[in-house]
Fold this sequence. Notes:
mainly alpha; two-stranded antiparallel ribbon; 57% helix; globular
Amino acid sequence: APTRLPPCVARTYLGLRATHHLHHHARVQLAFFLNKIMEPDEALALVTRNFTKDGKRTWSHYEAQFRDIFQKRRHYDAYGCNKLQTQRRPNRHLHEYDGCPFAWDSRRDLDDLLRTMGVHDPSKACLDQDDDDQADDDVQT
């Protein structure tokens, strides 16, 4: 489980591992992040391994994009929280794994992601509270 990744990258990485495919925005989000934290060969190997299913490479037409980012060491910045929270809304039903899970995922999906990342009580990890919880807090203070 990707316990040491930011939740946005963990969501994208888990989506890649599950489907062996990423839509454009998720590929770019993951590539820009990996470009900042890994050596080019290491990042390319990780991506190649996860775009492979049953011994077949499913990503050959994406390879040039990743090679350009990783091997030429372009100076792309990893997307920040603001961009991930304000860009287009990813369609989870179409298996789009980009964006900020705190901004775009359902509460159940966010809790599942956080549990996968090793957070045992996701309700304590979220800054956002349900309206009912907020109302209870206001009454007690």
